[in-house]
Every structure is written in structure tokens, then in C-alpha cells.
Amino acid sequence: MSSTSSRRLNYDNINPHVKAAQYAVRGELAVKSEEYRAKLARGDTDLPFKEVISANIGNPQQLDQKPITFFRQVLSILENPKLLDHEDVLVKHMEYKPDVIERAKWLLKAVGSVGAYSASNGAPAIRQRIAEFLERRDGFPANEADIYLSGGASSGVNTLLHIICAGPETGILIPIPQYPLYTASLSILNATPVPYYLEEHHHWGTDLTSIKKACEDAKAKGTDVRAIVIINPGNPTGASLSEEDVRSVIEFAREERLVIMADEVYQTNVFVGRFHSFKAALRQMQKENPGKYDSVELASLHSISKGMVGECGHRGGYFELVGFDDKVQAEIYKFVSITLCAPVIGQCLVELMCNPPREGEPSFELYNEEYTGIYEGLQKRATALHEAFAQMEGVECDRPQGSMYLFPTITVPPRAVEEARKEGRRPDEFYSMRLLEATGVCVVPGSGFGQKDGTQHFRTTFLAPGTEWVGSMVKFHKEFMDQYR
Q1: Which CATH number fits domain 108-354: 3.40.640.10, 3.40.50.11720, 3.50.50.60, 3.40.50.720?
Q2: Which tens digits make up the pLDDT trace of 417-459?
Q3: Fewer CB atoms < 10 Å away: N or C end of the chain?
């Protein structure tokens, strides 16, 4: 593409690494789906569907997931502290519980005002509450000085990759399929992604043989492989790693002197087994073998955007560092200082996520009802979608294990492959575009996440309410296969 613009900036002279970055989750299909949404909002009736289902992105509250009452009530006081002048009205007439008011007072004392900057790595009192949460979760102590509040986990990933990547020769092991944040960020940083393939027929688990080969091949080409990314539970695959898988990655990282970046934002979205954190596994391995794993560097990330919280728009998250050099941590602090601090209202939501109402407290009953309802709703829709895929010709899909996604394999008929080629599309892109045009359901082609050559997939969330849209996918698939077989 060329540009004849007289402006100083044009397509030909902007940062080439930005142009090279790709982010399929909000790519062509997402743009087209928003065009359809706008047409429907204008009252147009020429589309073959009445609503757009944004199954392309894990954005729960866009898809009618309701905010948790305790969280929003606390936030309302943080945003408008004058409400505390009328505590009796809040309790008697607005259904605020006393623990809502007490938590809001505590947070206001901790941050002063949500309109003020905090410390660059986050409010100290909130970091301490996160440390206490991590100790309860893992059974091992955590230090608030090793915790950094961020504007969602994505901001934390950006920080860590900026620190790790020194230039084009730096390599980062990335799971394939992967959430495209990682390859896009490495493209912008002009660093080298080192892909390793997950095992589809073993519940999308890590395959240490594949990881080792990818690492060895990259090093043979002169790449300085410095870190390995693990997304657990998985995005886009929905996999949930076993403790054995987690421990094997830690052992490999020790042998190869790799930083572990553990993206654990879906840690409460687990339907099969339970979540195994990298921090707990590492500390247990250090306990079993004193001294052997002391040099392992781990950065683990969490977010308010996922789980049952779903507060994507408030942009809150954190990362915890384990085993990092003090001078490196000082540079990380300097880096986060450049953007001053994470949104303070988001920091407060992180505290609420890590320390929700406990049994016996006034708000617990409603909180537990809402939290459980969201979890069970996600599990029910995941199961329904999985069962629908089982009915579809040429579609294979692992049972829902975790996160918010399913990543089925699709068999695209040869005629459809040829039509896709004529349009300059990959077969899964062609399929996904036809699905959107026929049903209003927006998914993401598997090629947007990476996949083994010769295979086709798509990723869909199971966040949208109801089942009508699932039925429309089944109907579309049958008609698509009949048309192109």
C-alpha cells in the first residue's frame, strides 16, 4: 500500500513494526460485525439476522453478564464519597450492607481519592491485600514489594516484554495457538517469537518435546531465547494444565535459564479439575529440593477482566515477580513510573476481587449467589455449545475445561478451500466470514491464533446468553457443508 498524502505521516513512513503487528481478535470480522450492529441499530431490515453476537472476545458485560453488586456498590462510594454523609439512606433505602460501607472507607483511606495518582507500582495497602490473597491461594508467603498493579494483565505483559526484550535477537517461546497479544507485542518490539505447539489430542496440554525442539532450533539460528509464555487456563484453547505439566515447564525453565511468564487471568474459570498456579508449584519444588530452583524467575499475571468479575472496562490487574534480580526490579519500577500508575479505580477492583465478602459477612449471601450464578451459567453454556459442535459434520472439539472459549477443529470442504483462495482468504477466515454474514455470530478464525499447517479452527466464547445463536450456528454449518461439499 502506498500513500500520496501531503501530511507528514503516511502509511509508508510510520513505524513498520506497528504495521506488521496483527491482532485478529479485533480484526476484519470484528470490524464488519460492528458495521452490522450499526445497521441494525438504524433499523435496517435487510440482514438475515436480528442481532450481532460478539463471540470473538472475552468481554462478559458486553454480553449481558451483570456486575457483582458488592463491587459496584463499593465503587459508587469511592467515586462519590459524599454518599458517606448519608449512610442511613444507603443502608435503609438502597440495600447497601454495612460491610460495603466499611470496605469503601478502608479503600478511601488506602488511596485517598480514586482521582489521585497512586505509587507507580500501585497503592501499598492494596498490594498488601493481594499478597495476603496469594498466600491463601498458594500456601506460601508473598511480598507486596514484588507485586505491581497494572491496567489489566495486557499492560503487565507489555511491561514485562519491554524489560525482557533487548532487540531482534531476543526470543520468547510462545504457545501455538496463542492469544495474539504476545506476537503482536513482540512484533512492535522487533523481537522474535519462538512458537511451540500445544497438543490438541491431549486436551491442548503442553508438549515438552515440542517446547524443547522449538527452543533448540531457535538457539541454533542464533536467537537468544530468554522466556517462555504459558497461558493457563488457555486462551484460545480453554485448556487447564495439570500440576505435572506446570512442574515440567518449571524444570525446563530451570534447565534453560528462562523467565516464566504465567498468564493466569482465567484461574477461576476452571470446569475440570482445579487450577494449579505456577507460584505454588515453584515454591513446592523449592521446598522439596532446597537451592535447586532458587534462580528460577517467574512473573505471574492476573486480571479483573475475566473470572466471574468481568470488569474489562475498568482496566485492573497485577503481576507478581518471583526470583527477579533487585536491579532488574528497579528498572521495572522505573518503566511503570513512565505511565505514572495503573487506574486507581481498577486497583480498588483488584482488591475487591482478591478479598470478596466472606461467609458470615452481610454481603456474602448475595455475592455468593451472583458469583455462583455466573459460574454455573458459563459452565452450562459451554456444555451446550460443546454438544452443538458434536452434532456438526467434520467438527471436533475438546470438552470445556476452563477459561471462556472453545477452539474446535473444522473440516472445510475442498470447494470452500478453493473459494477462499479466490477471495485471498484462508479457509477458516472464509468459513468465519460466511458464518458472520449468515447468522450475525462473530468468531475468530484459528489462523488468528496460529495452528498447525493443514488444520482449521475457530475460537468462540460461550459468554452470550440464550441458545438461539447456537442453533443458528448448527443450521449455518449444515448449509455451508451442503453448499461446498
Answers
A1: 3.40.640.10
A2: 899 899 888 999 999 999 999 999 999 888 888 888 888 888 8
A3: N
